[in-house]
């Protein structure tokens, strides 16, 4: 296994009890310190893959290693080192208030109180949630909840960050906040894995682009090359289309 892999995924398949094959023979080495974008149409298997590599879902066959160790033997380390932003932001809310929610991760890491406070304040600022410290988390808007999820991960200071549809529900300003965060994580040498079909927002930061189609990897490579090998049936829009006129502003 390559020494610089965070995740090594070998021949992983996932067949749900009802017989639906969500992933089939996935082989993927995810390199340390790189930004990987995984794209694919709705139902192509992005979220299932994310749940499998973070040990939130069992797989039917194959092997997954995190930093060289079989996933099941390293769950505690995985939970501390890899932060997730879920596709469903509501599912991620734990704390009553914004500050309490963000503090949950660093408190769990048993960090000293002053460091937890420092991290919470910095994460609130970086995610654009200033002034919302004592606001009830459940009453945030959809986009604010996503910012909150990103803030929680930032506060944990994880080496690997996995974001499932990080731009869903975000406005222009929210997308920019998340992109600034991604850029900083990248510059800090973190491993960033982004699952999204909104390639036009983030592909500039990617070192590599993987496309899933019906649970299989159909394109994998440098973003430019991977885009050049897209086929219409994959259901992924090439983000290099331009919008110079209003009449271009349609995905039809
Ligand atoms: N718990 C489950 N039981 C049965 N089938 C499931 C389950 N979770 C996911 N699937 C199926 O697995 C396939 C892949 O789902 P997944 O959520 O990974 O898609 P996705 O690529 O993340 O899609 P989206 O872009 O809509 O988020 C889908 O066909 C889905 O219906
Ligand atoms: Mg998904």
Task: Name the structural class.
Answer: alpha/beta
Give the strand line-up of the largest sheet: 6-7-8-3-9-10
Low-confidence stretches: none
What is the arithmetic mean of pLDDT?
Answer: 94
- CATH fold-level topology: Rossmann fold
Query: How large is the count of helical segments?
Result: 8
Count of all domains: 1
Q: Which CATH architecture would you pick?
A: 3-Layer(aba) Sandwich
Give the class-level CATH name: Alpha Beta
Silhouette: globular
- Sheet-strand content, in percent, reads 15-25%
| Rg estimate, integer Å | 18 Å
- The CATH homology group name: P-loop containing nucleotide triphosphate hydrolases
Largest sheet: 6 strands, mixed
Estimate percent helicity. 25-40%
- The helix/strand order is EEEHEEHEHHHEHEHEEH
Q: Which ligands appear in the coordinates?
A: adenosine-5'-triphosphate, magnesium ion
For the termini, the CA-CA separation is: 43 Å
């Amino acid at each position: 296994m390559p020494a610089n892999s965070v995740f090594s995924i070998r021949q992983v398949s996932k067949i749900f009890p009802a017989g639906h094959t969500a992933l089939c023979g996935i082989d993927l080495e995810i390199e340390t310190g790189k930004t990987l974008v995984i794209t694919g149409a709705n139902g192509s298997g992005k979220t299932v893959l994310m749940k499998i590599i973070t040990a939130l879902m069992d797989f039917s066959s194959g092997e997954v290693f995190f930093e060289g160790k079989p996933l099941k033997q390293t769950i505690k380390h995985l939970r501390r080192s890899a932060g997730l932003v879920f596709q469903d932001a509501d599912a991620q809310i734990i704390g009553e208030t914004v500050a309490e929610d963000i503090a949950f991760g660093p408190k769990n890491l048993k960090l000293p109180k002053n460091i937890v406070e420092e991290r919470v304040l910095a994460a609130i600022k970086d995610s654009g949630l200033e002034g919302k410290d004592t606001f009830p988390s459940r009453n945030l808007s959809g986009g604010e909840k996503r910012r909150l999820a990103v803030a929680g991960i930032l506060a944990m200071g994880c080496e690997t960050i996995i974001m499932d549809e990080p731009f869903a529900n975000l406005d222009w300003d929210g997308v920019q906040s998340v992109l600034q965060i991604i850029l900083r994580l990248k510059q800090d040498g973190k491993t960033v894995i982004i699952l999204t079909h909104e390639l036009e927002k983030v592909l500039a930061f990617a070192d590599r682009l993987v496309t899933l189609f019906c649970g299989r990897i159909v394109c994998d490579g440098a973003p430019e090359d991977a885009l050049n090998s897209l086929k219409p049936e994959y259901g992924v829009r090439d983000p290099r289309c331009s919008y110079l006129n209003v009449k271009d502003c349609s995905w039809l």
